[in-house]
User: Which sequence fits this backbone?
């Protein structure tokens, strides 16, 4: 894995958008082998937290630490250690899957042919990898291509924003397999989701957010109903 990170931390991070506080002096540390599911209502600060962890958004105050060292935004080595699956696919619509994966592999100094082969076998892209531009792919196919792009440099830190939204069962299963394999190899993963079924299948830890703050940070609840109950208590029920 690139950089071989053992821990990632945001320390007393605040993010302001004008007068709006999207994130309020939050601290969160995630270690190797953890898959953290972040849940909360719309506007709770989940995506802001993910953007700061991904080094695509600077906090107004606070800092990001990789293995205890402050990260310099724009540091290419730090960015190489991060794979981000966001709401936007971040691929080139006129390129095929193969062309997109090879392009991003070259950007990261990774062998393009090897990257294409790994992505195809890991994410089941064989049926459409060569002949279709990204702009004509189905929602599930495009999500799998986006995940392949996020994984191309074998990042230590994998960040996913609603990875299963709108996907069929087969695509969701692929994402679960990728997360399980990432955890087994000692990777770090943080996933924003509204779906207790996805969290229950892969997460080792639960973070519930409310009004820009972390309301709950605990080991993963038991089963889908446990996740639903934890979400309701922390976010809808106003638990501490």
Assistant:
């Amino acid at each position: 894995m690139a950089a071989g990170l053992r821990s990632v931390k945001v320390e007393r991070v605040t993010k302001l958008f004008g007068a709006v506080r999207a994130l309020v002096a939050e601290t969160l540390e995630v270690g190797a082998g953890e898959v953290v599911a972040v849940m909360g209502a719309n506007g709770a600060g989940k995506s802001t937290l993910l953007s700061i962890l991904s080094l695509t958004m600077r906090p107004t105050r606070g800092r990001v630490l990789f293995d205890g060292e402050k990260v310099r935004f724009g540091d290419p080595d730090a960015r190489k250690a991060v794979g981000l699956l966001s709401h936007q696919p971040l691929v080139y619509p006129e390129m095929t899957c193969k062309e997109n994966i090879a392009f991003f592999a070259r950007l990261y100094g990774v062998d393009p042919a090897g990257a294409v082969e790994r992505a195809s076998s890991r994410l089941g892209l064989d049926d459409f990898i060569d002949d279709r531009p990204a702009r004509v792919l189905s929602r599930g196919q495009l999500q799998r291509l986006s995940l392949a792009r996020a994984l191309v440099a074998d990042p230590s830190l994998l960040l996913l924003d609603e990875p299963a939204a709108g996907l069929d069962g087969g695509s969701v299963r692929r994402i679960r397999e990728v997360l399980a394999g990432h955890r087994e190899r000692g990777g770090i993963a943080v996933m924003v989701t509204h779906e207790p079924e996805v969290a229950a299948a892969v997460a080792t830890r639960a973070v519930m957010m409310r009004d820009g703050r972390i309301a709950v940070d605990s080991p993963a609840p038991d089963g889908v109903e446990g996740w639903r109950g934890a979400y309701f208590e922390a976010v809808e029920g106003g638990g501490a």
The chain has a mean pLDDT of 91.
